[in-house]
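Support request from a user on the community tier.

User writes: "When I paste my structure tokens into the form, the page sometimes reloads and wipes my input. The last time it worked, I copied everything first. Here is what I submitted, just in case something in the input itself triggers the reload:"
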């Protein structure tokens, strides 16, 4: 049994029960195991403030005050440690610079990194939330008080409930409270004095305005913290205790039972050998002790227990109350009942249900009924009519947050989640049904979003079939995009179980899942079948099958491109019209028909219907032009007045790709023209502009472009520029530093350093130099008799021919660079 439960029992029950407690505790030893609690801090970054949340397993008093470096959170429990390892993964250190243990056990110090202030509150579930906001604190903020060491204003220290006295006796220790129970105080005083204590009755109220009865007649009684050692011995005399109320016996029996349970759970150690006096014999009852008389106990309400006793394990683990779930950012999750759309309608005809609720929509004096408005809007949501539900809320706005929730859910049902962002999008990690709506509220979820897939699948399985059919495909798509492939498969199975064939909706989900698993060919076969049907998902299937082929670098079949063109024209005024037109243009470009792709783009622009996908499509077309077209098609597109790359607002990578291809074709001026702005100041942009300068024989500009760059590409450009300027010796040194010995040897030859060239130059160069500069003594090695006049002449001819061949090799190997001067 926990100390707090025992203290509550004693404070409520009076001295009879106190004596019983002391009797029981005299038979046992109570070293309670300290159950320290480690709190993992949760954090979240918001607009204008950073949030820290602490989930306490057991309630505790708390206070926040100012310190020299920021704030300190102090709890009335010292058995608490904090896990702050993951805090700064979720928030920057701009507002909260550091979090560490405070000045005493159970405290938490927050070091500020800005001119900020803290506000704090506690949720209904016991979570303590600390928000650090930008700017100065509001006037009168209770959290700006500076702590007065060592006392904590407003907190009451927790004292041990029991304390060992002389010779192992167990004595009661009073815990200070704001309003001590008079009966507990009298019982302590009476036991300490060893005499009967009569409960003082307040004097009757006197008549008159100035008379007033004392608030507490025993407030001035001296209360010793540790009674004399013989208190427990005198408490053994049960025969002198009058227990007129049977509830006391019931509570004592419950206390004994819970003490036994605490021993079984390992919270306390028991000693059942019995207490003995100094002589080793059990003391006899002392019938001379006076009788202690308690005032009548107040009657408890029927069915209400007078006191509740349980162990800490039972309270915190076995029967732990449910906490209100919160997100990782500290936002309170909506409960299952708030989004229980499956309960907002039934199987009766929709017209009948709508008529019933519309009848009571407006009451007396033409005032709308809040309950009827919410019920009708929720019925429309149940039927899948998002627009109608939103119209009801717009016409008769309900009070509170119910109206906004209906608007958010209606937008999701109508496929307009991106146009109406809501707080639901932040609840994807909740352990309630709202996680389903949180995923659907995100139009473009990414892999960094945490999704409670179990809660999503449970909530989806509880939906009626018509809502599962309507929401299954978009939900499966969003789960796939966050990497939850198994959850997407579970969504598909939840639909398939309730239908005979599942329809094309299941086929779309199957295709998406196969595509996510890398089974592109199987997915494309499913998409193709749906794309050529009259199913509502045909347009989406056509877009996905074209995109799949483009991602794999394959040409799109002409039949699919023609179908995309027809559907794009037919649906040009709808939301999917732009996506279909984009798919059509890229499909044409994938087959090399760039002219038709640009012509179709021109027709799209001439419609006068601006679409945000047009600029993106032009960039994607140019990407295809750069990567797959021949030089003639590329140059024709580049120099077309209507299709300049600048019109596409190309991103840096596309600009660099166009410039690199222009450089390879010798269009140096165009390279420098397209690499303007920020992209030209990148390392890759500067190197390309330096290459273009060398191509235009402007070596000094090339050196200026790569000034400060030390990568290998820049070093090679620098060596070529130095050689172009005639500084071959410096060029040889740069090549040698770049570990290009062959090039360094050639530049050494050009600089006249034949020794170095013969050492590190390429093989043809070294062989030629060896032929031109023979090793001294080679010719003299022959004997004079072996050379006659004719032989000597023949030898000279052969040497001359070898020299000419060596010089030809040298010229071919070390061709002089063009000199711009």
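"...and here is what came back when it finally went through:"
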């Amino acid at each position: 049994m926990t100390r707090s439960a025992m203290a509550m029992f004693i404070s409520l029950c009076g001295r009879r029960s106190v004596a019983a407690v002391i009797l029981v505790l005299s038979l046992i030893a109570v070293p309670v195991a300290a159950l320290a609690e480690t709190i993992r801090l949760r954090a979240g970054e918001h607009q204008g403030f950073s949030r820290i949340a602490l989930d306490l397993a057991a309630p505790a008093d708390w206070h926040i005050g100012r310190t020299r470096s920021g704030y300190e959170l102090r709890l009335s429990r010292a058995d608490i440690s904090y896990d702050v390892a993951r805090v700064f993964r979720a928030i920057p250190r701009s507002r909260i610079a550091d979090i560490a243990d405070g000045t005493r056990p159970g405290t938490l110090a927050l070091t500020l990194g800005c001119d900020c202030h803290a506000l704090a509150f506690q949720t209904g579930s016991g979570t303590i939330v600390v928000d650090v906001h930008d700017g100065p604190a509001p006037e009168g903020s209770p959290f700006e008080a500076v702590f007065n060491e060592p006392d904590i204003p407003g907190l009451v220290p927790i004292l041990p409930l029991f304390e060992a006295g002389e010779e192992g006796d167990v004595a009661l220790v009073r815990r200070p409270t704001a309003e001590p129970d008079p009966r507990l105080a009298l019982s302590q005083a009476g036991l300490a004095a060893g005499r009967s204590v009569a409960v003082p009755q307040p004097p009757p109220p006197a008549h008159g305005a100035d008379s007033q009865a004392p608030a507490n007649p025993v407030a001035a009684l001296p209360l010793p913290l540790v009674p004399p050692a013989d208190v427990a011995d005198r408490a053994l005399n049960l025969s002198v205790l009058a227990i007129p109320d049977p509830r006391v016996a019931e509570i004592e029996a419950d206390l004994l039972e819970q003490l036994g349970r605490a021993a079984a759970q390992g919270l306390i150690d028991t000693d059942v050998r019995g207490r003995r006096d100094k002589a080793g014999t059990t003391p006899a009852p002392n019938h001379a002790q006076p009788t202690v008389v308690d005032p009548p106990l107040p009657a408890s309400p029927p069915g209400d227990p007078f006191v509740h006793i349980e162990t800490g394990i039972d309270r915190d683990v076995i029967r732990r109350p449910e906490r209100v779930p919160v997100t990782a950012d500290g936002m309170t999750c909506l409960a299952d009942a708030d989004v229980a759309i499956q309960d907002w309608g039934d199987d009766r005809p929709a017209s009948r249900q709508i008529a019933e609720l519309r009848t009571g929509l407006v009451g007396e004096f033409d005032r709308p009924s809040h309950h009827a408005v919410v019920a009708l809007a929720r019925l429309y949501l149940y039927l899948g009519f998002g627009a109608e539900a939103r119209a009801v809320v717009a016409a008769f706005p309900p009070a509170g947050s119910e109206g906004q929730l209906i608007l958010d859910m209606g937008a999701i049902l109508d496929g307009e989640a991106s146009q109406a962002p809501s707080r639901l999008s932040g609840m994807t990690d909740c352990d309630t049904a709202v996680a389903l709506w949180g995923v659907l509220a995100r139009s473009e979820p990414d892999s960094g979003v945490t999704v409670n897939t179990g809660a999503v699948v449970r909530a989806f399985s509880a939906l009626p079939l018509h809502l599962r059919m309507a929401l299954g495909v978009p939900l499966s798509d969003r789960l796939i995009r966050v990497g939850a492939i198994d959850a997407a498969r579970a969504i598909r199975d939840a639909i398939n179980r309730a239908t005979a064939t599942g329809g094309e909706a299941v086929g779309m989900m199957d295709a998406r899942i196969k595509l996510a698993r890398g089974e592109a060919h199987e997915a494309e076969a499913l998409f193709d079948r749906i794309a050529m049907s009259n199913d509502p998902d045909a347009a989406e299937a056509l877009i996905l099958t074209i995109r799949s082929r483009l991602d794999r670098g394959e040409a799109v079949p002409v039949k699919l491109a023609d179908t995309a063109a027809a559907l794009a024209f037919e649906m040009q005024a709808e939301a999917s019209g732009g996506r279909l037109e984009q798919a059509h243009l890229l499909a044409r470009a994938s087959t090399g028909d760039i002219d038709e792709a640009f012509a179709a783009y021109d027709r799209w622009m001439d419609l006068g219907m601006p679409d945000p996908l047009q600029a993106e499509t032009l960039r994607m077309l140019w990407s295809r032009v750069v990567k797959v077209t021949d030089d003639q098609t590329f140059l024709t597109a580049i120099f077309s007045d209507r299709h300049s790359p600048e019109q596409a607002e190309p991103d840096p990578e596309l600009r660099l790709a166009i410039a690199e291809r222009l450089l390879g074709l010798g269009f140096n001026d165009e390279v420098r023209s397209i690499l303007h702005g920020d992209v030209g100041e990148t390392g890759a942009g500067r190197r390309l502009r330096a290459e273009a300068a060398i191509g235009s024989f402007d070596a000094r500009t090339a050196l200026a472009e790569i000034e400060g760059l030390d990568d290998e590409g820049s070093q090679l450009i620098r060596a070529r520029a130095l050689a172009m300027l005639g500084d071959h010796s410096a060029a040889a040194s740069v090549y040698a530093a770049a570990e290009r010995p062959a090039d360094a040897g050639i530049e050494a030859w050009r600089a006249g350093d034949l020794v170095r060239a013969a050492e590190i130059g390429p093989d043809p160069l070294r062989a030629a130099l060896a032929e031109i500069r023979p090793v001294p003594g080679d010719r003299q090695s022959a004997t004079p008799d072996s050379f006659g006049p004719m032989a000597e002449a023949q030898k000279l001819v052969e040497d001359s021919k070898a020299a000419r061949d060596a010089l030809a090799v040298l010229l071919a190997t070390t061709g002089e660079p063009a000199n711009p001067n």
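Agent notes: The reload is a front-end session timeout and is unrelated to the input. The radius of gyration is 44 Å. The mean pLDDT is 74. Escalated to web team.
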